[in-house]
Amino acid sequence: RLSRRGRTIIFSIHQPRYSIFKLFDSLTLLALGKVLYHGPAKQALEYFSSIGYECEPFNNPADFFLDIINGDSTAVAASKEDHRPVDTGKEVSSENGVAEDNVDSSVVDVLHQKYLNSSLYQSTKEALGKVELGRGSKQRVSKQGHEITYANGFLTQLYWVSKRSLKNLIRNPQASIAQIAVTVILALVVGAIFFGVKLDRSGIQNRVGSLFFVTTNQCFSSVSAIELFIRDKKLFV
């Protein structure tokens, strides 16, 4: 329902079953930092069948792909007779720093090379080439001048951040009510202290003192807003 309203939804599915997997439009398989397949999900089984990896009946395609990458399927076992591993060194995952012992680098190299020789890779490469040609002139201009690191301008960012902050303020009124109460009490205290100040030299000094006190208080109270930037920075990044 949210996606139909124009929202982008990102979520993680661990070991999806077939009823979920068949809903996928495109599929990208990665292992040890190399692309093993990228294309329509419906053509994935046909592609692996064409390079000699047949999916067994009643086997979940998602599990079948993992088995191929990990070297656990019967198709990989048969293929190992033809492709002897040259170097089965351990690869360290950049995500969690754990050595990936179960991934055979020789199998990954073979699958990656077969993908590079496939028509799927050629079509993807041509599509990316057209995109790069279209952006080539724009990138040269941006590199010469000031390089823009954000997709949107300052006013757009300010609008959406302000809108988000306003929604948080409306949805969590307790904090704002407390701030208003503190400000009103402080105003009454300061007003009571400096009430009825006369228009003479001491009165001018009292007014300067009151203005200094109010300004200092406002400056120190606004420092607490820095916490919001620190807390929400990771979310925005």
From TrEMBL:
ATP-binding is among the record's keywords: yes
Pfam (any one): ABC2_membrane_7
GO cellular component: plasma membrane
Keywords of the record: ATP-binding, Membrane, Nucleotide-binding, Transmembrane, Transmembrane helix, Transport
Cell compartment(s), UniProt: Membrane
Segments forming domain ABC transporter family G: 14-81
Main location: membrane
Membrane topology: Multi-pass membrane protein
Residue intervals passing through the bilayer: 177-197
GO terms assigned for molecular function: ABC-type transporter activity; ATP binding
Residue ranges occupied by any ABC-2 type transporter transmembrane domain in the UniProt entry: 156-236
Family named by the database record: Belongs to the ABC transporter superfamily. ABCG family. Eye pigment precursor importer (TC 3.A.1.204) subfamily.
PANTHER family: ABC TRANSPORTER G FAMILY MEMBER 28 (PTHR48041), ATP BINDING CASSETTE SUBFAMILY G MEMBER 2 (JUNIOR BLOOD GROUP) (PTHR48041:SF82)
Name this polypeptide is given: ATP-binding cassette sub-family G member 2
